[in-house]
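Fig. S4 source data, part A: sequence.
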Amino acid sequence: MKQSSREFYEYSPIIDRPELVWPNSARLAVWVVPNIEFYELLPPASPGRSPWPRPQPDILHYSLRDYGNRVGIWRLFEILDRYGVRGSVALNVAVAEHHPEIIAACLERGWELLAHGIYNTRYPYGMDEEQEREMIEDAIATVKRCAGTQLRGWLSPALSPTERTYDLLADLGIWYTCDFLHDDQPFPVNVRGGRLISLPYSIEINDGSSYLRWSRSPHDYGAAIKAQFEQLYEEGAESGRVMCIPLHPFLSGQPHRLRPLAEALEHIMSHPAIWFATGAEIAGWYYAHAYDRVMAYLASRTTPPPRDH
């Protein structure tokens, strides 16, 4: 088992890396990640965590999340359409079976489907390597079948990876993971074979954390998005940055939360040198234009561990 972050990725001060240049010299790559999830009313028991905060059946929390697929997502479609923003969907791929109308609406808009596991009430805890591989292969096959595209991105369900998740993702041709919260640029992940990068995701301006953990008001959440943008936009003048806006339809799709989100998107779009992109587009550009340079930079500064005497 990996024992430290150094084994998942190298330490690298962002101020010392090779300059990252986005298309058309954009300062900031912005990607919006709607988490479109499916929660089971009576999920199987998990060895690592309880899927629901209250005894099952937890009707309160189940029905709130169901609101997102019945109502909230359609409001987010309207807002993102208004600003011409394509989403990168962190998808519990069971949605393809239970709510194919949502998948069709995503594909009509050219949104990317990245995988967020099968259900948001089932986690890899307790799985052996073959079982986890089968879960990832199921997600790949489902996206291929319903969208006709190759799965490129992965966000572990409920952010619950195992020590082998990233090796398996690289083995199966996934380009990027959103599980790490350690950087404002894409960054190589250490894997046993192939290649994998982390793509900046966010808990700080994630509506889940904002509304459920920190009890931010909609106004404060919109202000946090704007403040995050302003700082990253300023820093991006020196070397490109990534800003992620993760959304949950059952939260940001509530009527009283829509206007601050729309105002934040409008504020971002009022600035030049912004690249609104999907996760796969950001990762593809990074692999083509930055990955080899960053790997060479890391090799040049890696110090071998001390030898035993």
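Fig. S4 source data, part B ends here. The beta strands are 28-36, 88-91, 112-115, 153-154, 176-177, 187-188, 197-198, 241-247, 274-276.
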